[in-house]
Amino acid sequence: MICETRRYRGGHRRRVHRTRRLFLVLLMAVLLLVSAIVLMRWLTAPPALSVIEPVQSAAQQEKDSASVSGEDQDSWQLLLVNAQYALPDDFTVELADVGGGHSVDARIAPELQAMLDACKSDGLSPLICSSYRTREIQQSLFDNKVQRLIAEGYAPDAAQAKAGTVVAVPGTSEHETGLAVDLVDENNQNLDETQEQTAVQQWMIAHSWEYGFVLRYPNGKSDVTGIIYEPWHYRYVGKEAAREIHETGLCLEEYLQTA
Predict the structure, then answer these.
(1) Rg over CA atoms, the chain
(2) Average pLDDT estimate for 226-248
(3) For site-directed labelling of 2, which of 21, 52, 116, 222 has its Cα 20 to 30 A away?
């Protein structure tokens, strides 16, 4: 007779073995099924696309290049140069001789000449007093002004600040752009407020905008421009902008803020 305990244990072991085999069979079946699904998806999936950087058209590349260099559309005409916006050290400009030892940006030379000719045809005598300046010339003018102020009793720091309102700090002068000229009456070549009373300045105030020029540092705008009133300093901005500035009485900084 077999012990009931042994019989129970023997039957239990057989049931456990059968259960384990069944579990292993099911596990293998599941693994094979999952492997088959993964394999089928891999075989039927479309090939991966490589990432291709967008290529700009020649026109777009030219436009972007122009934007960086400040030549986008007519932006060169409205180039803002002041104490806050200095010219880069490598700034260059193509110059044209306008007589009397003076040069300006070649793009504005025709309009400048036309304006001077029109003024002369009305019996007046306009004279270019100053035009394009190199960085070195601007530095020399600024340094001379500082030294004169120090000689008058100004402390060096105060002299620097004061000089900057009369002679632009090198790198912040419109004369370095070739877009600005100082125009005076041949009968009064003093660069002071008496210039506004001359016949030439009266004509310029009335007509310069027709040729794309504006009085750059008008009276009452020194807090905005950072430069004293200069009724002789004219800046080319293009005919459309010049007309709007003339009609509104804005200075260039204000005009650019509203544009």
Answers:
(1) 40
(2) 97
(3) 21
